[in-house]
Every structure is written in structure tokens, then in C-alpha cells.
Amino acid sequence: MAAADVWSKIKIQQGDITKLAADAIVNAANSRLAGGGGVDGAIHRAAGIEQLQAACRKLGGCETGDAKITPGFNLPAQHIIHTVGPVFGGGQRGEAELLASCYRRSLEVAAENHLKTIAFPAISTGVYGYPFEAATEIALRTTAEFLVEHELIEQVTFVFFGRVDFESASAIIERLSPARDNS
Ligand code: APR
Question: What is the secondary structure of 142-178 as a DSSP string?
Fold first, then answer.
């Protein structure tokens, strides 16, 4: 697929990712897949803590930059793809490549499972401290590159919890993508 065309498959929106009925939503997890605060906590609560933790225990953890899949249980989404973002430590410890890997591996897991729609939160930009603009640019560029080679994925949605983040992401996607029809 031509690079310019993939941007029509990339959407951004403000809201709570646990409400999205995508084939998969991505969780910003920790390496133990033990649940936590932020979006991890929200997803575990909405999916059903006991059944999701039981499923996560079978996965044996997850490396930073990798991604693993579970059912979505009580979520409107069919699946959850758990990925572990890097903790930002200044930018000189490979954080950018590890963050890009989170998006790439999550998309690979979606493609391997023949999923067509996937939604991401802003991985690593909360507790893990990754600067929001840099992280969002990595997320968008990595996703656009992946979609050029993987046409079966029909839509990737980036869900931003806060309005400020959503407005910042809107400006970034405007800058990165060819003239967009924002309908
Ligand atoms: N829907 C969408 N986005 C959300 C939601 C939600 N319901 N709740 C929080 N967010 C956003 C935050 O505003 C932030 O922009 O998700 C982004 C990621 O923030 P965190 O959840 O703190 O994730 P991260 O920075 O990757 O840190 C992961 O935090 O919760 C623990 O167990 C988790 O150890 C792991 C660490």
C-alpha cells in the first residue's frame, strides 16, 4: 500500500480505551503483566480482574518492547494486546527503539491473529515518563511504516484520555500525514 494511503487508516480520538469495541485494544502493561494503575488498571477492572489476571499468569510475563495477547473478557474489545513500554531515562538508553518496538510487535500480534481493528493508548507517556510529543511521533511513524506492508489491518485508532493530549496529538498527525480529510 502506498505510504500516503496508509494515513487514511490511522485515526485519533479522545476517550477511555476500555469503551472501544475494536478487535483488540492495547494495554500499557508492566513486565510482570500483573496489572497496575493508569490504563493497565482501567483495562483490568473493565475486563474482569480475576479472569484477566488468570490469563496473564499463563503468559509468563512480557519483555519491554514485546507484546502478548489475551481475550478481552468483559471488555467490548475481543482481545487485549499487552505491551510493555520503556521507562524514560533521558533518551540515551534505547528508549525510542523500545517504544517503536511496542507498536510494531503489537501490530504484528494483531496481524498474526488476523485482527482488522486495533486501538492504542499513549504507551509510556504516563507513569513511565516518556515525553508525550516524542512518543506520539514514534507511535504514528512506526504504525504508518507497518501498514505499508500489512494491508489486512483496516484501522488503527490512537485513544487519548485527556483533551490536552488529544489536541497535541491532533497537531502532530496533521504535521506527519499528507493533507488529511478530518471528517
Ligand atoms: N483510556 C485511554 N488512555 C488512558 C486511560 C484510559 N482509560 N487511562 C490512562 N490513560 C493514558 C494516560 O493518560 C497516559 O497518557 O494512558 C497513557 C499511559 O499512561 P500509563 O497508564 O501510566 O502507562 P505507562 O506510562 O506506559 O506506565 C505503565 O503503569 O499502570 C502501570 O502497570 C503499569 O507499570 C505499568 C506502568
Answer: HHHHHHHH-TT--EEEEEESSHHHHHHHHHHHHHHSS
Report CA-CA distances (Å) from 80 to 2, 4, 7, 104.
29, 29, 23, 15
Q: What are the b/e assignments for 12-31, b being 16+ CB within 10 Å?
A: beeeebbebebbbbbbbbbe
- Helix residue ranges, H only, the chain: 3-6, 38-47, 49-57, 95-112, 132-149, 163-176
Q: Which amino acid is at 112?
A: E
Rounded Cα distance, 44 and 123, in Å: 16
Query: Residue holding cell 494511503?
Result: 5
Please, what is the angle between helix 132-149 and helix 163-176, to 10°?
50
Q: How far is CA 102 from the centre of its chain?
A: 8
Ligand 1 interacting residues, C-beta cut-off 6 A:
16-18, 28-30, 36-42, 85, 121-128, 159, 161-162, 165
- Looking at residue 181, its pLDDT comes to 56
Q: What is the DSSP secondary structure assignment for residue 127, as one 8-state letter?
A: T
What pLDDT digit, counting tens, does each position of 122-165 carry? 999 999 999 999 999 999 999 999 999 999 999 999 999 999 99
Ligand 1 atom 7, closest CA: 16
